[in-house]
């Protein structure tokens, strides 16, 4: 596999967002000896995204090659898979169509991935940028890819980083594909706010023996248009995003908690449900305590919606256990696939809490 960086943008009807994202890419400060390209996967868009992409890239006067791929099958997971199959280089950087990468993002990611061959996925730090002033209930919830993903740079204990700004090692991805990796989640489907594909990919790379890393120096702005900040959109995002727990929580129990049998699975599941029930209780009491202060009241009301949605997603326990068994079988397949890496892969399956700072979207 040739060493270099393939920057990937998966987009659905992103004509409005893409111009500024592409201009930030064109302004990347990359050494001449670092090979890189830009791949854009049009995930069944119905607007003029492709025309916008060609025009903006031509105006930027950059010599970096840009390729547009069309994925007719809706779903962010399908778009990412197409990108991985077509990427020229081993380091595949996923930049959302509303991410503005810092000028040194590509070169910093290249250096980190080159120096640390055990890294399967590398995440950065996003900072939200809003069109207008937003209420507390938007700013105070970890619903979008932003903020630090660990206390410090290095391997993350919970084995996940968010997909925005994430760099995937293609040879690591090819290892899990060779082991017949079949994602349980389709992730974002057009206007449907399903989620979790980024976390699922990280968990599978960790199962394959790779480290999941966070780097504080990798910075990007995450633009939030007004259309994504309405009360209706936020509630829909919470409820539809929570549905991914039916697949994501079994990964957490298997990998982070080390459960392998039915008894330990259900013990972990009960403890997780109890933790969210406690969070709902605390949020509801706080909601009652500030009932006459609208912003604070709305903030805590969203927390009750979030906790209730996650608890509801955990009730179909038979489906969760079936996914847990599928993960166990896939783990066994992985152990039969010889690694392409000569370096020993870091095995980091430490027990970890379930952070609230980001729910995959």
Structure notes:
This protein is an alpha/beta fold and 361 residues long. It has a domain at 2-232: Spore Coat Polysaccharide Biosynthesis Protein SpsA, Chain A (Alpha-Beta Complex). The chain contains twelve helices and nine strands. Strands 1, 2, 3, 4, 5, 6, 7, 8 and 9 form a nine-stranded mixed β-sheet that branches. The chain is globular and about 55 Å long.
Which key phrases capture this entry?
9 strands, 361 residues, Spore Coat Polysaccharide Biosynthesis Protein SpsA, Chain A, nine-stranded mixed β-sheet, 17% strand, globular
Short description:
The chain has 361 residues and is of the alpha/beta class. It has twelve helices and nine strands. Keywords: Transferase.
Derived from helix and strand composition plus strand pairing, the structural class reads: alpha/beta
Distance between the termini: 30 Å
Query: Would you list the SSEs in sequence order as H and E?
Result: EHEHEHEEHEHEEHHEHHHHH
Largest sheet properties: 9 strands, mixed
Helix content: 40-55%
CATH architecture classification name of the domain at 2-232: Alpha-Beta Complex
CATH class of the domain at 2-232: Alpha Beta
Mean pLDDT comes to 89
CATH names the topology of the domain at 2-232 as Spore Coat Polysaccharide Biosynthesis Protein SpsA, Chain A
Radius of gyration: 20 Å
Low-confidence stretches: 340-361
Shape label:
globular
Strand content: 15-25%
Number of strands: 9
What's the name of the CATH homologous superfamily of the domain at 2-232?
Answer: Spore Coat Polysaccharide Biosynthesis Protein SpsA, Chain A
Number of helices: 12
